Amino acid sequence: RKHRDPKKSSNTNRDNIYKEANTYVNNNPLAWVNTTIFDYKHQMLTGCLSLYTWTYADDIQSEEIFHPLGTIEPNPRKDGCAIVKLTFQCSSYENIQFPSMLAVLKYAEELHNGEVLSSDKLHENSKPISAMLSQYLRIDKVYEMHDQDRNALWSRRYEILAEAPEELSTLLHCVNWNERDEVAETWNLLQQWPTISVERSLELLDYAYPDPAVRSFAIRCLRFLRDEELLLYLLQLVQAMKHESYLDCDLVTFLLERALRNQRIGHYFFWHLRSEMQTLSMQTRFGLLLEGYLKGCKPHVPHLCKQLKVLDALKAGSLIAKKGSKEKGRKEMQDFLSSPSNSSIFQSIQNPLNPSFRCKGIQPEKCKVMDSKMRPLWIVLKNADQSCNDIYIIFKNGDDLRQDMLTLQMLRVMDQLWKNEGMDFRMNIYNCISMERRLGMIEVVLNAETIANIQKEKGMFSATSPFKKGSLFSWLKEYNRTEEEMNKAINEFTLSCAGYCVATYVLGVADRHSDNIMVKRNGQLFHIDFGHILGHFKEKFGVRRERVPFVLTHDFVYVISKGRNDRDSEEFLYFQNMCEKAFLVLRKHGCLILSLFSMMISTGLPELSSEKDLNYLKETLVLDYTEEKAREHFRSKFSEALVNSWKTSLNWASHNFSKNNKQ
């Protein structure tokens, strides 16, 4: 049984909060439930409440006894769950109400007038405030802060306001949220606090900051976001709504307003909400949000209804394709999509992956069933714009695409961070959208081939082809015949390879075999299939298959060095320098990367279910190092990838051999 008070937050690391409780509690919990102590009208609950509980299989992947991040919604399956009866004793006061913002600010003013806090202001400490804050800047050390340091920083809060407003999150960890005077003073401070950067504002929407005034301040800062920036962080902002105690809050209002103002934002807002509608704990909250959006944006409703019909048709086609042999499934799926009743569904629809593109029909004869275990569909749609290529989509039924969607979004964030620093790594980040539980679409990148197929085409035997260093270079030369074209393709390859080397290293992207790395004919390299991230590397017979920080084979070096196997060439040294610069930029914005992943913990992804899963990011970003030490650290990882590239080739050869035996 757990109460969640939306008006209070804790300074203590939640791993320690329940340490004492766990000593006495049976280690086989039956169920859990959360509730707020004040209702949405800010009145304290009274009388007897019936709380419908969740089992630990319903909405939790953590081993903790309590589940503070769990929903405050009751279990809708009332006939099949345990009920906790909770009685709030009636007091002599009627209608105990949590004070409004105005009342709290008035109380804070009275404290100042009475000079109750004057001793804090006059507190003298010879140490500069920047030096005091430096040990807690951009690193996860605030949870280890001693009470003495907390009190010292709190006493100098006005200096932080004047000299280091970006470090608001550090100051908030110094507040004793059980002390009325300090909470009132904090709310008063937030009224005076200047707008802070987007990345530090996003941090305040994490579950670690439940105070409503803090979250309102974060939204005040985010109101300056341009639409394209908002789209970049929309995935996390939708998840952040799960941590709001009440639906009527600034975050919900902000997102609804922006979605109604821009139909492109509304499109992704709709699908992010709908993709979780099969999660029982989210049905009520996200259902109400969907209803609110659809009622407010009636012109968008017909377009979304058409997309839902397309989804149903593809789902039915996918089930047909899964029956019998692959060839039989393909024929029956094509016949199904060719029928007049089904083919008409695909006329005049927006592409769910990118609503900027419209489709005017489907081409069933070009559709096929792919080789993977879940038999995804290769779908070809006619582009309404006759001057553009047809639209190619992979429809997946049975695979959870949420992790792919998160990884691709983080790649976009990284790409934007680099571009803000004047570096374009020619990243080719395709679109991916989760539409229902284990159901979604992936954009097909045209004029591209996997490394495995390139090596197979250019090598005599596919099992040994990973060891042949010229296959990729020869393949690029086929499509870039002039010297100018080839130099441009090599430059595209060099930059994109640098970007993906650093990004996959920081994110801990695993399962990097030769079928999961592709190259476009223009030289752009890109990665696909992000089923394993944050260092969850595959093992075989207890041995880790991937033993390098990132993929940098001799075949790649050969292309970067313009057809020479020279690791001291000017071109390769340029590549290494770009990798180092890219890493240092990401490290500078490590706070943002950690915050965005932290906001996704409540999603329930198998490889991102608790704070422990963030440790990999902290290790790769080495935020507690100086810049020079971090550069040296990355150089050692770069050398490790280069020296051990033969292990990658061996792993790829094993993969090719295994794949050939299955065919």
From TrEMBL:
Limits of the PI3K/PI4K catalytic domain: 363-646
Gene Ontology MF term list: 1-phosphatidylinositol-3-kinase activity; 1-phosphatidylinositol-4-phosphate 3-kinase activity; ATP binding
One Gene Ontology CC term in the entry: plasma membrane
Any Pfam family: PI3_PI4_kinase
Chain ranges of the PIK helical domain: 119-296
Reaction catalysis annotation: a 1,2-diacyl-sn-glycero-3-phospho-(1D-myo-inositol) + ATP = a 1,2-diacyl-sn-glycero-3-phospho-(1D-myo-inositol-3-phosphate) + ADP + H(+)
UniProt domain C2 PI3K-type: residue ranges: 1-99
InterPro entries per record: ARM-type_fold, C2_domain_sf, Kinase-like_dom_sf, PI3/4_kinase, PI3/4_kinase_cat_dom, PI3/4_kinase_cat_sf, PI3/4_kinase_CS, PI3K-type_C2_dom
EC assignment: 2.7.1.137
GO biological process: bleb assembly; cell migration; phosphatidylinositol 3-kinase/protein kinase B signal transduction; phosphatidylinositol-mediated signaling; regulation of chemotaxis
Keyword annotations: ATP-binding, Kinase, Nucleotide-binding, Transferase
PROSITE patterns according to UniProt: C2_PI3K, PI3_4_KINASE_1, PI3_4_KINASE_2, PI3_4_KINASE_3, PIK_HELICAL
Enzyme class: transferase
Similarity-based family: Belongs to the PI3/PI4-kinase family.
Database matches in PANTHER family: PHOSPHATIDYLINOSITOL KINASE, PI-3 KINASE
Protein's UniProt name: phosphatidylinositol 3-kinase
Gene transcribed to yield this protein: Pik3cb
